[in-house]
Design brief:
about 160 residues, mainly beta, Jelly Rolls, six-stranded antiparallel sheet, 14 strands, globular
Amino acid sequence: MIAASRLSLIVACVLIGVPALAVTDDKGFVRIAPDEIQWRDLPNGHGAQIATLQGDPTKPGLYVQRVKFAPHVMDRPRWHPEERHITVLKGTWNTGTGDNFDPEHAVPLKPGSYMMHPAKAVHWEGSAGDEEVVVQVMGYGPSGTTPEDPKQPFWVEYNKP
């Protein structure tokens, strides 16, 4: 149990990310250009990265993050305490629900697609092919991530040639 709690804490800390160098103008608008996004490598993520654009997922309130999956990189089944709203920005995002990690039965979502993760619903996703995938995640903190099986690595390379 201690190992599971420790892993959940590590994953939650990693997912905080660092907010982009956003500038708020005198009317309160925030603009972030793509080259201003501060991407951070995720530990043992096989090239997966995260960027926090707005808010702080560890605190109450709205947060906006982007997650970048390198080709052939997926994450294993896990859940979050809060509902999350995801939009695919780039690539084909392969999604699955439940605790059975089976990319062969994933639902592929193309750019422009949307998916809502209900609170505490087990899911997994990533890039099951040769393309990079970028998704934008919105939710209300405080957030966290709990792996369904903390004995398994969180990130996995799938179907890599």
